[in-house]
Amino acid sequence: MEKKRSEARPVSAGSRDRGRATRRRLIEAAARLCEGRPGSELSVAEIAKAAGAFPNQVTYYFGSKDSLLVHAAFLGLLHDARRIERIGRQAPDAAAFRRNIARAVLAMPSLPSVARALAAGISRPELAPVVDRHLRLLFRQSERFMGQVLDDRGWRTRRPPGVEVRTFWSTALGAVLLVRAGAHGTVADLDLAGALTLHDEAEGG
């Protein structure tokens, strides 16, 4: 056993870089393909071909196609979130910020894929940690953005920024899950702007 351990070759920096690049290409390819149709309709071979990779690399890097689709869904969500941050920065006041952010979030093209990813995390325990990591990243990114907005504009929130962004995203994603589960109505029926307590001096509080 000791001899085998001593003969094991260390993974080179070049191999790690190639592995990270392949992994990234697979995620990006899956995200692009999921924009046109549900991931359930995509084959591993199709995703691998679009990424310039081999089908067995999906299993090697992600364990399963479903795990890859979770990564791809949240990559799309993070890209959408950055676009929404730009929309928020253009708002002239806090009321417009709340309204514009809510409208943009409910129209995000990544929402259907993220809803499927959340459902997969519920039904497949092995995927729950993957979903959790991505949600934490989303919350951190949103909290940084919220902090920058508060500092730059002199606005305030009626609860800690971390609680603010978690409440907002939980409301948005929960609404999408309800609609996809067959609940009556649409996400447009939701007052998502009301989930934000961010306000300026003109509004008081």
Total number of strands: 0
What is the gyration radius calculated from CA atoms? Answer: 20 Å
- Beta percentage is under 5%
Order of helices and strands: HHHHHHHHH
Structural class of the helices, strands and pairings? mainly alpha
Helix content: 55-70%
Principal-axes geometry comes out as elongated
For the report, how would you describe the main beta sheet? none
The average pLDDT value, as a whole number, equals 86
Q: What is the overall number of helices? A: 9
The unreliable regions are 1-6
Q: What distance separates the N and C termini?
A: 68 Å
Description:
The chain is mainly alpha-helical and 205 residues long. It has nine helices and no strands. Helix 5 runs antiparallel to helix 6, helix 5 crosses helix 7 and helix 7 crosses helix 8. The longest helix is centred in the C-terminal third of the chain and has 26 residues. The protein starts with a helix and ends in a 25-residue tail after the last helix. The relative contact order is 0.11. The N terminus is likely disordered.
Key structural traits:
disordered N terminus, 9 helices, 205 residues, mainly alpha
Layout of secondary structure:
Elements: H1 2-7, H2 13-34, H3 44-51, H4 55-62, H5 65-89, H6 94-106, H7 111-123, H8 128-153, H9 161-180
Helix pairs in contact: 2-3, 2-4, 2-5, 5-6, 5-7, 5-8, 7-8, 7-9, 8-9
